[in-house]
Amino acid sequence: MGLQTKAEACGTALTTEDTAFPQNLLPGGGALQQAVTGDVTGQADGMFDLVVSGKVMRARRAVSCLIGPQTADTVALLSTTDGLFITDVLVRPERTDKPLRIDATRDDGKHQDVVLAADNLTLEVEEGLEATGKNLSFRFDAMLMTSRQLALVGKKLLTSMQDIVTNAKTLLASYDTSTTRAKNRIDRVSETDQLKAGSLQTQVDTVALTQAETAVFVAKEDIRLDGKRISMG
């Protein structure tokens, strides 16, 4: 009732009955810009095949229709002097498992950039959130990630930070090869520091100093000290 009253106030009767649509839609059939619906039957060459009141027609997707139409969708149509356009996806059958796709593809098949601009943006997902692309970039003044479990899987991980602080109850690292380069390294262990290796080699350019209240060296067979001078006492 509100739509009919608004149309009559503008001096133009808006016809939405399916039986009246084809005559108004075709060139020379009446006033343009008639809002109607149709069912998608297929897609080819950037055009969508539709069934409107039993007739087969073709339409393009309007730029404002970000959700990509799929077969069996019921869509809103707009007839203009430039042709027939799909403006909205109205109904998607419950039996289909096709996702709602935000599609910013032009008629030539190329994708356009999509920008979401807002002071605050919240994504609420009940099960899973997946991002797929060649490159993924985040730029924040501060970033907080909270997760019960976090996994990073890839071929190479590069971290460049001025300061890195790691707090953990247990830290387990497994490598084939581990290489550490540092100008200065300080390790402080309050209780026990244990190293188990198949063989251990330590090479120091100047001085190697070990200080302890009690130092014990245990060998099953031999203990060998080689040097120009050996002082004990």
Account of the 3D structure:
- There is one protein chain.
- The protein is mainly β and 233 residues long.
- The protein has a domain at 17-91: OB fold (Dihydrolipoamide Acetyltransferase, E2P) (Beta Barrel).
- Helix content is 6%, strand content 17%.
- The protein contains two helices and five strands; from the N terminus they run ααβββββ.
- The chain has helices spanning 2-9, 21-25, and strands at 35-44, 47-52, 55-61, 74-80, 83-91.
- Strands 1-2-3-5-4 form a five-stranded mixed beta barrel.
- The chain is rod-shaped, with a radius of gyration of 36 Å.
- The termini are far apart.
**Cross-sheet strand order for the largest sheet:** 1-2-3-5-4
Number of helices: 2
CATH class of the domain at 17-91: Mainly Beta
The CATH topology of the domain at 17-91: OB fold (Dihydrolipoamide Acetyltransferase, E2P)
CATH architecture label of the domain at 17-91: Beta Barrel
**What would you call the shape?**
rod-shaped
- The proportion of strand residues reads 15-25%
Short recap of the structure:
The chain has a domain at 17-91: Nucleic acid-binding proteins (OB fold (Dihydrolipoamide Acetyltransferase, E2P)). The protein is built from 2 helices and 5 strands, in the order H-H-E-E-E-E-E.
